[in-house]
Amino acid sequence: MGGLAKTGLSGLALLALAVTAGATSNGEEVDPLVAVVELDDADRFATLFAETEGAPDAAQIQKRYLDPAGRAVAIFTPNRIRDADHLAAAIAGDPAAYRDAITRCLPWVRGTEPDLRAIYLAYRGLLPELPLPRVAMVFGAGNSGGTAQADMQVLGLEVLCRRTPDEATFRRVMRDFYAHETAHTFQRLDRKRLEADPLLAGAIAEGTADYLALLVTGEVPDPARNRWAEARADFVWAEFARDIEKARDPALGEAQRYGVFRRWVGNAGNAPEGWPDELGYWVGMKIAAGYVANAKDRRAAIRELLRFDDPRAVLAQSGIVLPTPSPAD
Prior knowledge:
Number of helices: 17
Order of helices and strands: HEHHHHHHEEEHHHHHHHHHH
Strand order of the largest sheet: 1-2-4-3
Helix content: 55-70%
Strand content: under 5%
Largest sheet: 4 strands, mixed
Number of strands: 4
């Protein structure tokens, strides 16, 4: 969610990051009444950072942070941490961001656990058959606020902290991430069946997570983005309709299709000029909301969205009619 900066991945590889492709849970149950944020990795990083005066080298990072780490860092390593050299370079490039996250935001994390438990209780009521994931906080390479697999959501504190000037804002952002990333752990989407329509599929996948976050928190994710998009809805839908067709066009090169995809999804910190980050999330949230609103059985519709394999059918049932792109587009 909202934390993925430029990675150099192809458009279809980026789609893989936008959806959970056929993952399965390890069956470990998390009790929503006592859910906690696992901080072992974050605390170990903070100790290393302090003892190296904010300048750990790759060998120290490997030995003292990556090697002793468990599931959370393993999830966060591909496309994010990457390796010890990449993480060392990221820290050297912006040590102040890591110092700020350690001294200001790390102590706030425990104070967000009541919000996590409330969100998990809401999800247990909405989708009682689905196991809730563990939650862990780590330090990454400054390029991701969070990701998820079926059994765990993992959050990058240095990215989350730079978005939050005070503790109240930090708690709100954490609520959004807890709710959004949990939805991703529930998704079982077949990436290969979605690759023919990558932009629409990616927007629906991320928008479904934001829609469920809205349901369980009562708060619109990223209020500033929501205000911007609502005020320019006609423009947004026209641009999205045009780009859907471009992203579907096999005649375009992979780099061009990638660029179209990145206008909407996976562009935190690198959105088109004048646009908010991750505008595709707002588009997808509207599609998901319409899909559920138009269903006879809304709970069934939510479960369908977690496993959809036909983005165009989801769009059609949503009731949203996209404008027809003009030939000049």
